[in-house]
Amino acid sequence: MPPLPTYTQQPWIETYSEIIDVRSPSEFAEDHLPGAINLPVLNDAERAEVGTIYKQVNPFNARKIGAALVAKNISQHLVQHFADKEKNYHPLVYCWRGGQRSNSMASVLSQIGWRVTLLAGGYNTYRAYVRQQLEDLPKKFTYQVMCGLTGSGKTYILRQMCKRGAQVLDLESLANHRGSLLGEEWQGKASPQPSQKYFESLLLQQLQSFNLEQPVWVESESLKIGSIYLPQSLWEKMKQASCVEIQLPITARVEFLLQTYSHLVNYPDILKAKLEKLKFRYGWQKLNEWYQWIDAGKWELFIEDILQFHYDPTYRKSIQRHFSNVERVLSIPDLCDRSIDKLLDCICSNTYTIA
């Protein structure tokens, strides 16, 4: 007799052959369990169709049409995805609330003979777990914050530290944003940020991989990175942390920013559109001055001026307000490999100056 599906409310304590999210693609894209794959039993259009019939016609007709669509889609998944699975295959299956969609998939897989586990309460159970964990877990770590004016290479330095084995929480990577007006990531075109929920899933996954006995290095971010907000528990701990400030000559900062934001050099119209958001602070006269330098290709002049006029004063105010516990100030001439190596040697040995 085929085994009946079993239920769990703690899927993170067991290992499965696969984690299958049977929700629609748009639901999956917003957030999902780490490592899950999407095998929807109803796609977005089908889900909308069934929902409309449920509300505007009657639930019985909606269930009939929904059942036919679910059966068709599960059949396709059986042929395209499950055909090569062995007898010991053991998936975890979930939908939004642990209802009809996941039970439909689990019932068919169980009848084949596979051992299937259902997430009781579905994605909602997982989401409640993430919220609770992000309330408690960030408080358990000791943090070290790396500060420095825009263009000081903080993210780059932290990533080099990570290669040396340091625990680095790269919030900009998780949020897919560099945390400023011009910080949108670019991969041939503007690269979108994850949803708030998916960012929190990624953040929790990263924190759970860390050793509680070791410090966690993090950049002096704002509460908001692009459109993403940090959990309040993490933000409060970051503000209490001791800080290391990196100082770099402005010429080296300009050179680094030209390399880092090369896409804005290639797409000056996009840059101008972003700068227009600063009109209310600095007026059209300053904006037109920047536009003229951009049009003339005077990039070093533009970058140095916007650093001194906008970014540096803004950053200094933020640091004074949120990250005033600066215990070390380390100066480097540039961001070449030799300078970075000496800087990291200094940080790791707890020395205060770089020879």
Describe the structure.
With about 350 residues, this protein is an alpha/beta fold. Helices cover about 50% and strands about 10% of the residues. α4 links the parallel β4 (about 90-95) and β5. It is elongated, with a radius of gyration of 25 Å. The termini are far apart. Mean pLDDT is about 95; it is low at about 350-355.
Supply database-style keywords.
alpha/beta, disordered C terminus, 12 strands, 15 helices, 355 residues, five-stranded parallel β-sheet, elongated, single chain
Q: What's the short version?
A:
The chain is an alpha/beta fold and 355 residues long.
Fraction of residues in β-strands: 5-15%
Mean pLDDT: 93
Terminal Cα span: 75 Å
Report the sheet with the most strands, covering strand number, pairing sense and barrel closure: 5 strands, parallel
Number of strands: 12
Structural class given helices, strands, pairing?
alpha/beta
Poorly predicted sequence stretches spanning 5 or more consecutive residues: 351-355
- How many helical stretches? 15
Can you give the helix content as a percent range? 40-55%
Instruction: Note the run of SSEs as H and E.
Output: EEHEHHEHEHEHEHHEEEHEHHHHHEH
The general outline is elongated
Strand order of the largest sheet: 1-5-4-2-3
Q: Radius of gyration, rounded? A: 25 Å
